[in-house]
Amino acid sequence: MADVIAEDSQHFVAIDMGSNSFHLVIAREQNGLLQVLHKEKRQVQLAKYLDSQNILGETAIENGVQCLKDFSQRFSNLAKTQVRIVATHTLRVAKNRQSFLTAARKVLPYPINVVSGHEEARLIYTGIAHSQVLEKKNIVIDIGGGSTEVIVGNEKRAKHLASLKCGCVSYNKRFFANGLLSKEAFKQAIQAADKQFSGLSQVYFNQDWSLVLGSSGSAKAITQAISEITDNGEGITSKNLLILKKHLINIGSIEKLEFEQLDERRIPLLAAGLAILISFFRQLEITHLQAAKGALREGVLYELAKIEQQDDIRQRTLNSLAQLYHTDANQANKVTQTALALFDQVSKPWGLADYRWLLEGACQLHEIGISINSKSHHKHGSYIIENSDLPGFNQQQQQMLALLVGNHRKKLNYLSITIADDSQRQAFTRLLVILRLAVLFNLGRTSNNDQQIKVNAQQAEFMIKLPQTKLQQQQQSKHHDLLLQDLDAEQKKLATIGINLSFK
Length: 504
Known about the structure:
Blueprint: E1 11-17, E2 21-30, E3 33-43, H1 58-75, E4 81-87, H2 89-93, H3 97-107, E5 112-114, H4 117-129, E6 138-143, E7 148-153, E8 158-164, H5 168-175, H6 183-198, E9 211-214, H7 217-229, E10 236-237, H8 238-251, H9 270-284, E11 288-291, H10 296-304, H11 313-324, H12 329-350, H13 356-365, H14 377-386, H15 395-406, H16 422-441, E12 454-458, E13 461-465, H17 468-475, H18 482-495, E14 500-503
Parallel strand pairs: 1-4, 4-5, 6-9, 9-11, 13-14
Antiparallel strand pairs: 1-2, 2-3, 6-7, 7-8, 10-11, 12-13
Helix pairs in contact: 1-3, 4-10, 5-9, 6-9, 7-8, 7-9, 8-9, 12-13, 12-16, 13-15, 14-15, 16-18
């Protein structure tokens, strides 16, 4: 990998030595945004080899050191490299951790920072806050191999941190070691987790959370398992957790579990993680949880790179993409100004007030595909957005942005793609009308005073009144009817998606 990376790039390496898995992330900073170059995960399962006296077994030490040795080969030849390694619960409690640290230093010449539970929780929240947009009142749960972190925070920072002694590896050893998935085993695991959650401070209870997130591999695995056995599309809810629990009990044995979407190494830990999450829902009266984008390793990376969290993560992402693909900033600004002038006139009757940022983003990125091929740049731009890592955007927002860019010109081709619900599909269609017209009014890359264009909208109607001065200017040129021809062609295209465009 080092051979294909510029030698003068500043690289940042984060290694997260969790109780279940070790994670390696290599990134470089570009325009205030970290660009991930390589990710790797190894299931070392330190917690599995931690005995009742908190002595870490030789097998765990050997496996962990070998993993770090392998990781070091991924970045040892990179120039200008900063490295930070953090270890969590198992090495926090292991009485013989110095044996591990000494052996590790021989293969990886960097200090290993064994972080406290609260510091682990803080880094988790930092990673999430840099990776997605948060709300005013958020609660995050991270079910690790040996501990579970629960964090309360606002849009920018963690406010309350807690680290509990329950994890998917330790609970698997304690309650599901014989491989049996029985009602009694789940009962005991849930009750044990209840004792942990009940010890949280009052700030964690009886709250109307704006957003509930799960940042661990357990949350993602449970999401995937639920999607395989249910068709309600609701994700992690109280009802679906119980459905999954019943499904596991009916199968009765970890060895017989089969999930196509899950890593085989994650399946044995599913029941333990599920028991902890059921307790979390029950004790804190949670109704719905979604998987978070970031985690501890992202928090380590951003702090290592000294990249401050900005107020608008999405804008930082958009700026970085625009610069990476060398978009024409002047043209993007012209299209944005025109689009917002149209938007401000119709956002109220069309109910688009919450989507202004999405329209601006599409305007900013509508030409990013030109660097690949100008003829079909809308298609290339859509592909770039759909397949990039976009901090600040959830999956649905990313899809809508990609669809807007992919349909801003030429033939409309999005009706076959699933958009969350009818209201969101309607909003998307209306945003697309505005974007396409803004692009159309700026064809030729000339300076236009499009703020004078008057528009109004009612349901499926979009009416344009062009200023007289503009028509006179058009008539003075040899292409006096070009704009009207473009509008006439656009009228036919929009009719295919149920929009009646009229102009005079």
